[in-house]
Amino acid sequence: MAKQKYLVLDFGASHGRCIVAKYDGESFEMETVHEFDNIPVRFAGTLYWDVLRLANEAKTGIKAAYQRHRDLCSVGIDTWGCDFGYLDKCGRLLENPVNYRDEARYIYKKELDETFGEYEIFKLGGTNTNNIMGLYELYAQKQQDASALCAAERLLMMPDLLNYNLTGVAVNEYTNATMTLMVDQENKQWEKRFFERLGLPQHICREILQPGTLIGEIQPGVAREYEVPQLPVVAVATHDTASAMAGVPVSAEQTQDWAYISLGTWAIFGVEGNTIHRDRRTFELGFANQGGCEGKTNLVNLFTGLWVIQECHKRWSEEAGRKLKWDEVIDAAQKAGGGRAFIDLDAEEFAHPNPNMPLRIQEYQKKRGGYVPQGMGEVARCVYDSLVLAIKYCGLAIERITGKKLELLHVVGGGSKSSVLCQWIADAIGVHVKAGPAETTSVGNLLMQMKGLGHIGSLQEGRQIAARSADTKDYYPAKGGGWDDLFERYMKAVGKTI
């Protein structure tokens, strides 16, 4: 058969890619046609996403893809979760979306949790009550009497905005809508009690579209501007975590009880299932429900992934006068040895961009009376140990919630490229790790485009294609290593129990 080609726009919180996926009836291959850094902008004290630039990057990617491949089938867009923008009654963008790391969201979360009750919020919305969730930004704007909220006719999540720019159709895709914390996941509709009790305008949140649904076509004026045909635009699993889960390469032969972790700026550890867990134990263990594909629920723990080490890497590169290779960082961490210092990667001290993250880590340790790591190697090992042990915690917690023994962990995302990190994870958790592919989010985006166009019948069928196409590597736990002892010390250092 002639290759079917799909355009995947995968916009992450720090980096974006435009990819042409080519499927030959058996497997697929990916061709990157455009890449860019996603850099937020601080203006008058507020941290924003530059959505106008992102729309232009989408334009550049679509044009580049069509110039190389005149037979594209469709376009699908996924982005990070939680953030949104407003349209006015004329369909015009009111302002740039506020970035989830803006400090105001963190301040107003505390106020809302105290007045509403954090566990009550969890029970209604079913998902993480993390600082970054969209509900807290909406509440912050309500308390600030923000003019954009007052004038808003529609609320659109980041990928919804980009889809709207292409098609002129304003819809909310389900998986990203759940990242507002304001969706009733049983009925797959907006949870009205949030709007009623907080005095938020209900009319701005309307139709929710399930992933794998055709939104429409690129509208004529946009097609002329981009010099492309009116390609179909599919609502994929637009939350990148849901796309990553959809793209996990599960073969027909795989029978183990599996979980996955997407290791990028954020780490998302989860399992896919049919049950929505709203009990207090799930809440206290840090797990929550996020919207998945085909009516499934992703039971996940969302925590800080590579963000802290990425910020450290920026500082070390500045000090070196060149961009350090990641192998240099991990080699230094190996030589430094582990088990000296542990930090809570989710601590507020590390939540915001910082010009000297290594110093922030040292100050954090001094304040708590812990060992203060010195130099790049010790600081890097402190961060990596803390990340690996946070993953071990998730593995134990999810076994308690589901009652199933974890047998296989799929590691996907950028972190899957590090063989040292993947081996540490296998050793710490004590299970088989299958790493890769790094671009699982793009794979999930592709599969839901294929389903939306009727080119595959189910996600299961798509995952088998992904398994045939994937370049993966297996890691098996080595004996010894002392990870259980390190885990006890880590749990004490960060104040967790299980």
Automatic annotation (TrEMBL):
GO terms for molecular function: ATP binding; glycerol kinase activity; rhamnulokinase activity. Residues 259-450 form the Carbohydrate kinase FGGY C-terminal domain. It comes from Christensenella hongkongensis. Belongs to the FGGY kinase family. GO terms for cellular component: cytosol. Its EC number is 2.7.1.5. Residues 6-246 form the Carbohydrate kinase FGGY N-terminal domain. This is Rhamnulokinase. GO terms for biological process: glycerol metabolic process; rhamnose catabolic process. It comes from the Bacteria. InterPro entries: ATPase_NBD, FGGY_C, FGGY_N, Rhamnulokinase. Keywords: ATP-binding, Disulfide bond, Kinase, Nucleotide-binding, Rhamnose metabolism, Transferase. It holds the Pfam family FGGY_N.
